[in-house]
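Sample 1 of the test manifest.
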Amino acid sequence: MNYLLYILVMLEIYTLLALSANQKVGMSGLLSFAQAVFYGMGAYVTAIFITKFGFSYWLALPVAILTCVLVALLFSFIAGKVRELYFSLATLALQVIFFSIVFNWTSITGGADGIRKISHPAIFGFEINTPSSFAVFGGFWVLVVLLFYGWFLKTPISRMIKATRDDQIAVLSLGKNPNYYKRISIILSAIIAGIAGSLYATYSAYIDPTSFNLDESILILSIVLIGGAGRIIGPITGALIYILLPKLLEFIQMPDNIAANIRMIIFGVLLVLIVRFKPKGIFGKYLIQ
Amino acid sequence: METAIQILFNSFVSGLLLSLVAIGFTYIFRVTKVFHLAHGGIYIAGAFSCWWMLAKTNNWFASIAFAIAVVSILIYLIEKTIYLPLNKKQSNQSISFIASTGLYVITINVLALFLGNDKKVFNSSISGSYDYGSIIFTKVQLFQSMIAMLSIASFSIYLKITKSNLTLQAVSDNETMSKVFGINTEKARVNVFIVGSILASISAILKMLEFGMDLQHGMSITLTASVVIVLVSRLDIGLCVLFSILLTILQSTIELYLNPQWKEGITFLILLLVILFRTEGIISYNLRKDRL
């Protein structure tokens, strides 16, 4: 039972991450290889403020979100300067720089050893420390984000974000600043990823840099592209495929020692097939350009 | 002084090995427009297949020939089944970049599945060193630099004899116009992929002679080579070699004065600054703004 709850919590975390990446990739057309930066930023800032400064989760979370927003502003500066492949390369560089910082700044981040003993969140004196309570807590955040999108996608700002994605020159001709809408999208994406990171840090009670490296960014991006970018159902489907794939491998009695590699091979093959034959992804609406 | 000479020599050797990867990567990127991240997977495939064959036959010649055959067939299949169809559909660079990322993930995990995740080491028969005071030149390093220089020279001569450089430059500048003028662009693409992959596998085998190799090294060296691509921004072997050596000198200096782990961060900081403030590269033709 605990294992199933663990799967559920991971599904919730990856759903949040996929939704955050979808905001950038699917809604704004910004192919970012640095989604794990915001995920890691959320996790590290939460962990540092809880373990070193004695903050509660509810105080550490806004600090984590604020930090993510500040880094998102740097990203939006990059998005304003370069486009397409060069934007992707710039984000890839930022991902490597971020990993280098968390790996080497040992006095703050704990370096390769990471940060241990991150305390769990509590609501009205009730500590969220069991798998079932975390599953509910994770579900709460997914619901909050989904409800937010239920509202946000109907707003004019959301339509302008998509318009910027589809035709930047048309947006300029309307007298609007495309970079402003890109900035909003990047900040929104950073906030959701920061929440996912914060949830992950308090759930696992231990974080280290390997959870936030380039491989993780590639994985998050793949989840969105396989599920389909530009719609809410796409990233959720992608996260479901990624999380449930190991269960399928268990079902066909795949030995544990090769299951991880098989999972990544299947994921890689899916990514290549999707790009080759169904570039919009399973449920996607937007074709990466 | 002696430390400086030692660093320069070590950087020179590492720079030559990096330049083999960077030359291939640069030619592939400029000619095909594919940001071929799977180059890292090809690099590892070359080294691991050579290691596997050597363990079976104990014959260096057969092992190197086998590695070259493996990477050539692998990249041929990738080009024909993935990259070329995407190119014909006029997919943009981001699409091929994503496909390449998927191919890298597949290659590395297939290798891990069949050959294991552990570090692979050659039982090299080249050992010993030449010592001048406290400066050490190992025989492996001298062998590496000799073979690397020979490979670079061979590639340059190949381009000169076949007059390929002009063809590749034409395809790089405008593929459609190249077709109009009778250039077989598909053949040019396949050639550049195969030659680039062979250069990468030679570099990988040479690197493996000294320290052995794990699966993660492919991504690391490919990312460093991508910095050279952005810095150089043109088809020029000499500049690729020069920038590769300069980059490894910088990395060695960082290793000496800071934690070795900072070297990738600082290398990519340079990449980021170049992308942001001089997207057309440090030494390059001026790109039109709409190509940025």
